[in-house]
Each structure stands twice: as structure tokens, then as C-alpha cells.
Amino acid sequence: MLDKIGIAKRIAKEVKDRYYVNLGIGIPTLVANYINKDIDVEFQSENGLLGMGPFPYDEEVDADIINAGKQTITTLPGASFFDSASSFSMIRGKHVDLTILGAMEVSENGDIANWKIPGKMVKGMGGAMDLVASAENIIVAMMHTNKAGESKLLKKCSLPLTGLSCVKKIVTNLAVLEITSAGFQLIERAPGVSIETIKKATEGKLIITGDIPEMKIN
Amino acid sequence: MINKKVLNAQEALTGIKDNMTLMLGGFGLCGIPENSIAQLVKLGVKNLTCISNNAGVDDFGLGLLLKDKQIGKMISSYVGENNEFERQMLSGELIVDLIPQGSLAERCRAAQAGIPAFYTPAGYGTEIGEGKESREFDGKMHLMETAFNADFSMVKAWKGDEAGNLIFKGTARNFNPNMCGSAKITIAEVEELYPAGELDPNEIHISGIFIQRIFQGNNYEKRIEQRTITKR
């Protein structure tokens, strides 16, 4: 079974040379730490920065340079700043190659719910609805089950949706899965996790074809 | 040169009344018009509709207006770093309209550009789309979103000149340029105000034509919400 860092490390392998990538808050943010050093990747922060770097050293902190999680951040050589409408032109216009975000639920046809729980304080969708509606390549990073032990990979989402049929791939603490027209196609198992465990934790339709390899993570 | 300079926030905010719709730039507390917000608190205007990506924190940014119950409706994409906001929202004192961030930005830009409405795929098939006109383009469904219609827009820039030209800094740019010229009157406050001719025309982000009033702000706090650092 993977922890959050393990999930981030596995997703990092999906990030390819010359990709522009938007990372959501939570596990996705960690992905930046594990990208292969031999490839060129730029991170887009939807509040108006392309070419985002690591957190600043104490004396470099600049209140005017933050990421979408409102954390202080730095820029890398080649970085640029822009306004919010331009930022979403990059996203809506499909100029960003990969979007990695968290989710509360994903359905077997790729619907995603990650912004609202009825009866609880609703904070808003931020840029998530724009991202999932337009991105060509969306990877969800999440735990396979919720705190109550219930599957988050469902036949149909029970929570209010963020977007329709948009998720392409899911990396959880138990498995890597692709969304196909037939359902959740199991691609890899997390180290030490049996197919039985994955079956039990997946409520939606799980497709298992041939031998399912174990993930390789450094 | 058409001079847009006014003396201070007090002069700049002349004409703001109860029940008006205001646009306010900023992302979190980054790039917010601190001086204009302080002046709104002073004016005590009530039942405002505020279009702003976020709603500040309890004791800063739009949180200051919430504390005095000056806001009747918030139009934002993400809120909730703010206990008083939550209390007013749950008690029904405050109406909250949450909309996707890209649609929020584009509805500002559309108002600036004189485009009454546009189509976007964001929110189609979700509760955001309920009651909205939808249409298929190239096999994909889109929602129609309309331009905002605001009375005043309040933005903050790094440098400006008396002609109203603006230059922004870092990610403090965010919604600010999109809100210039998007309301009947746009008020810009700047950290550094220069005489016309001092700023290089090649480096201007927003032309003064979109600005009606510009003033030199002061005492910028520039609060940081999440101070994250790398240890040496």
C-alpha cells in the first residue's frame, strides 16, 4: 500500500518531457518534488504563474508571489506572470498538457466530485471546474477509500459533480487505474496489494485483463 | 494627457452608495486594494454585492467588510478562510454565489471588452449549469455565462502614472487587470504613482483608458496567508 508520498512518486512518472502541468492542492502539490530531473517541465499555478519553483528561503519570501494554495513560492528561469483570464485561456484553450488533482469520488465513466459535501460548509470550486471541463489529460490522486472505509471509485458519484466524463487515470494508495468505456481498467497494483483487496475497495466496475503488475517506484 | 489622478482613497471612492455592485481585485490577500477596502469600511456603505475571487480572512481584506455586515452578496470562486463569512453564510445573512474561477475571470474580461455573454464548458452537467442556457460546439456541451455589470471596480497595481496606466507585480496581478474598465468606474490604487511620461509605454500592462481614478496608496500590509519556506 502507498502513502501520500508514494502516490505522488507514482504520478510523477506520468509527467513527460516538455509538459506544462497544473497541480491541485494536497497530494498533487507533492508531485513536483519527484519529477525526473532529466526532463523539462513547467508548472502552472492558476493564480497567474507559469514556471513555478520551490518554496523560497526565509529571506526571499515575497508576499506578491504565491501559488493557488496561497503559499509563498519562487519562480524559475523562464517563468512568466499573467492575469487570471489569461491563466484560464491556457487551461480552457488546452495549452496545459496535464492536470493532476484530488477527488472525493470518481465514477466508472470518469465523472469527478471534489468540491462540495451537502450539509457541510462549501468553500467553492476554485478553478477545478474549468480545469476538468477542458483538460485533455486529467489524473486524479486520491485514497482508494474514504475515512469510513467506503470506496471512492463508484458506479455513480453521490456528491455534487465537478465535471462529467473527464478523468483519464487514477492513482490511489492501492492501484493505478484507467477510465475506459467499460469501467475502471486496473493497470498496476501498489506494492504488496492483492487484486482481492482492490476488488473489495472498488464499488464501480473493475476490469482486470491478464496479469496486473506491481508498481515500480523509486 | 488625460489626468486621472485623485488625492486619496476618500476622493477616489466618491459616489459609492448602499446596494451597489463592486468588483475587487486580488487572489486571497495577494494584490487586494487595501486602501479602497479601508475606505469602504470608513464609508459604512451597506448591502454591497462584491465580486471577488475570495472573501478575505476574519480581520483583513473583505473580512473587514463582512465584520461590519456591509456585504449582502458575495460572488466568488473560493471562500471559507474566514469564520465570520461561514457564520453569515450559514445563518442566511449573506448570499453566496460560487462560480468557477475561469468563468469569474472571463465574466470580468467580457464586461471590459463589451461582450455580453460567452460559452464555456466549465460547469456543464453540474449544479452550476442549472437554469443556464447550454449549447453544443464541436460535439461538446457548453454553458452560456454573462458579463458582469458592476458599478465600481477597485484594483491594485504596483506602479501607475497620472494617465492611469498600470504595471502589476508578480502574482498580485491576478484578477486586477481583468477588472479594469469592467465596471462603470474603475478606481486604481498603486504603490508607486509617477507623473505621465515616467513609465515606459512598452511596459504598461493596462492602458489608462480603462481607469477613471488613480491614487497613491499607503501603508500596504501585504499579509501572507501561508508563509511556506525552504530551510537552508
How do you describe this structure in short?
The complex is a heterodimer of chains A (218) and B (232). Chain A is an alpha/beta fold and 218 residues long.
- CATH architectural label of chain A: 3-Layer(aba) Sandwich
**Pair of chains with the largest interface and how many residues each contributes:** A-B, 49 and 57 residues
Question: Count of helical segments of chain A?
Answer: 5
**Mean of all residue-level pLDDT scores of chain A:** 96
Task: Spell the H/E element sequence of chain B.
Answer: HEHEHEHEHEEEEEHEE
Shape of chain B: globular
Short key terms for the protein model shown above:
heterodimer, A: 218 residues, alpha/beta, Glutaconate Coenzyme A-transferase, ten-stranded mixed beta sheet, three-stranded mixed beta sheet, 17% helix, B: 232 residues, eight-stranded mixed beta sheet, three-stranded antiparallel beta sheet, 6 helices, globular
Structural notes for this entry:
Chain A is an alpha/beta fold and 218 residues long. Chain A has one domain: Glutaconate Coenzyme A-transferase, CATH 3.40.1080. Chain A has helices at 4-12, 27-31, 84-92, 128-134, 195-201; strands at 19-23, 41-45, 49-52, 75-81, 98-101, 105-107, 112-113, 138-141, 153-154, 169-171, 175-180, 183-189, 206-207. A ten-stranded mixed sheet of chain A has the order 4-3-2-1-5-8-10-11-12-13. In chain A, strand 1 (19-23), helix 2 (27-31) and strand 2 (41-45) form a beta-alpha-beta unit. The model of chain A has no long low-confidence stretch (mean pLDDT 96). Chain B has a single domain, classed as Glutaconate Coenzyme A-transferase (3-Layer(aba) Sandwich), CATH 3.40.1080.10. Chain B has six helices and eleven strands. In chain B, the strands form two sheets. In chain B, strands 1, 2, 3, 4, 8, 9, 10 and 11 form an eight-stranded mixed sheet that branches. Chain B has a three-stranded antiparallel sheet with strand order 5-7-6. Chain B starts with 8 loop residues before the first helix and ends in a 16-residue tail after the last strand. At the A-B interface, helix 3 and helix 4 of A face helix 4, helix 5 and helix 6 of B.
